Amino acid sequence: MALRPSLTGGTKIDVSPLGALELRSHVAPIRLDVDVDRLDPVRSEALVNHPERISGLQEEVASDVVNGTLNLAVRSCAAVVAGATALGLAVYRRPRRALAAGGLALALLAASGTAAYATWNPKSVLEPKFSGLLSSAPSVVGNARSIVSEFDVYQRELARLVTNVTKLYDVTSTLPAYEPDPSTIRLLHVSDIHLNPASWKIVSSLVEQYEIDVIVDSGDTMDHGTAAENAFLDPIEDLGAPYVWVRGNHDSRTTQRYLAKLKNTHVLDDGKPVDVAGVRFAGIGDPQFTPDRSTKAEGNPAEEVAGITLASSLRAQAAAGTPVDIAVAHNPVAARQTDGTVPLVLAGHLHHQEMDVLDKGTRLRIEGSTGGSGLRAVEGEHPDPVEASVLYLDRATQRLQAWDEIKLGGLGLTKAEVSRHLPKENQPGATPPTPSPDPRS
Fold first, then answer.
1. In the β-sheet with 354-357, what is the strand arrangement from edge to edge?
2. Domain that residue 80 falls in
3. Is 421 inside a domain boundary?
4. CA–CA distance, 41 with 59 (Å, rounded to integer)
5. Where's the Calcineurin-like phosphoesterase domain (predicted)?
6. Would residue 234 count as lying in a domain?
7. Which of 52, 219, 309, 384 could form a disulfide with 373 if both were Cys (CB 3.0 to 4.6 A apart)?
8. What is the total count of domains within the chain?
9. Cis peptide upstream of residue 433 (ω within 30 degrees of 0)
C-alpha cells in the first residue's frame, strides 16, 4: 500500500498483470495505491470458478486492510518528516529550520489525510471500474497490418477478451454492490456497429457471459445501406437472444426490410409497440438516410418531428392502459422529445456513452459505437473504442436497477474496462422518481 500525490484522489487496486480496480473513494490531494505483488494461480482460478468462496474471506480481508492502512499511515508520517527534515537540513544547514520543514510537511500530510477522511465514500465500491490487459493475445492482435490478413484471429481474441473481463469482473462485483437476482431482465444495448464484423463475436460473447434476455440495437448497423451489405446482418439469427432494432441514418429501408425477415428479430418503427422478453418497446426509425446524396439532409428539425411522433404514440399507449417501458430512437435529438412519456429511452449516433435524466424524469441512455466506428476507426490518431452496455431491469416494474458500461480497445488493441453504475434513485433510502405527466396527454 502507498500514498501518492493526486489531483482527484481515489483508490487504485493494481493486480498485475490482470488489471486495476479503481474506486472514487475520496476527494483529496492524495491517492491510495494498493499493489498485489503476486497471485497464487491455483487459488486465483478457484476464486474465479467459485466466487461464493470470497464471502468467507470478508473478515480476514477487512482486518488485513485496517492493519495495512494503519501501518501505511505510520510509515508515511515517518517518511515525510524524515525526508523533509533531511532536505531542510541539506538546504538551510540549520536544525531549527530543518525541523520546521519536517513539521510543515507533516501538517500538509495530516491536512490531506483529514480531507480524505472527511470525503470518504464507502459506497464507492458500488460503482467499481475494472480495466486492464486481461488477455494474452497473440502479437497479430496488436499489429494493424496483420489484422487485415488475420482478422478472424482478431475477432476471436476480442470475444475471448470479453469473456475474460466479464468473468473477473463478476468476481469483484460480488462485493457490496448491486447483484442482480435470477429474475432480473438483462438487456444488452448496442449501437453504431457500422459494418464491423468483429462486433458479432463480441455481442455473442456478451450474450453468453451475461445471460442476456434481449439485445437492443439503436441503429447505424450498416454504413451505406445498400443491398450488397445485407448479408452482414445474417449472424443476428445466431446471437442467442431476441434482437430489437431501430433504423439509423446509415440504414436504408432496404436494410430494414431485409432485417425484418430474419428470425428472432423485431424492427421498431412508427411508434408501434412490441413485447419482447417481458419488456414493452416502441421506437421510430431515423427520418434521414444520409448516404443518399440525392436527398438534402434536414438536420435536427427532422429528428425533432420524428421524436414528437414517437412521443405521441407513447402517450396513446399509456392512455390505452398499455404503457411502453422503453423507447428507442437512433438520434438523441429525437429521443429527447419523449421526455415525460416513458421511463427509459435508448439512442446512439454520437459514438460515445452518456446517461442523462431529462427534465420530466425520463432517463436517456446514449450508447457508444459497438463497431468502434467501423472504417472511421482508422481516420484519427487513435482508434475509437468498442462500447456496449448491459442494463439490469426489474422484472416486475421493468425499471432500470443498474447498468454495466463495457469498453474495449479499438482496432488492434486489447484493453478492456467494465464499470458498474447505479441510478441515484436506486441508492439505499432513495425514492424512485417517475416521469412527470406530459401536459399534452
1. 274-276, 279-284, 326-329, 344-347, 363-366, 354-357
2. 2-120
3. yes
4. 22
5. 185-352
6. yes
7. 384
8. 2
9. no
Write out pLDDT tens, residues 354-393.
Answer: 999 999 999 999 999 999 887 665 566 677 888 999 999 9
Cβ contact 251:229 at 8 Å: no
Q: Give the whole-angstrom CA distance, residue 27 versus residue 311.
A: 41
Residues 290 and 304 in one domain: yes
Q: Which three cell numbers stand for residue 99?
A: 525541523
Q: Which of 105, 120, 135 is the last residue of a domain?
A: 120
Instruction: Classify residue 421 by burial, with Cβ atoms within 10 Å: 0-12, 13-18, 19+.
Output: middle
Using the structure block, give the residue that is written with the C-alpha cell 426489474.
Answer: 394
32 with 165, same domain: the answer is no
Domain end, chosen from 98, 120, 142, is at 120
CA torsion, points 76, 80, 86, 90, in degrees to nearest 10?
140
| CA–CA gap between residue 134 and residue 416 (Å, rounded) | 7
181 and 109 in one domain?
no
Q: Which residue has the cell 390505452?
A: 320
Residues 64 and 99 in one domain: yes
The CATH number linked to 383 is: 3.60.21.10
Q: Is the pLDDT of residue 61 over 70?
A: no
Residue 189: the pLDDT is 98
Model confidence pTM above 0.70 = no
In a domain, 289, yes or no: yes
Got the DSSP string for 157-175?
A: HHHHHHHHHHHHHHHHTTS
Sign of the Cα torsion 101, 103, 108, 109 reads positive
Same domain, 95 and 177: no
For residue 139, pLDDT over 60 is answered with no
Provide the β-strand partners of residue 275.
280
**Phi/psi of residue 284, each to 5°?**
-145, 135
Alpha carbon 178 to chain centroid distance?
A: 15
Residue pLDDT, tens place only, 276-291: 999 999 999 999 999 9
Within this chain, do residues 332 and 356 fall inside the same structural domain, yes or no?
Answer: yes
Do 198 and 67 reside in the same domain of the chain? Answer: no
In a domain, 436, yes or no: no
Q: Are 199 and 193 in contact (CB under 8 A)?
A: yes
Q: Which amino acid is at 411?
A: L
141 half-sphere exposure, CB direction, 13 A CA radius:
20
Whether residues 61 and 147 fall in one domain = no
Give 347: exposed, middle or buried? Use CB within 10 Å, 0-12, 13-18, 19+: buried
3-state secondary structure 56-98: HHHHHHHHHHHHHHHHHHHHHHHHHHHHHHHHHHHHHCCHHHH
DSSP 3-state of 30: strand
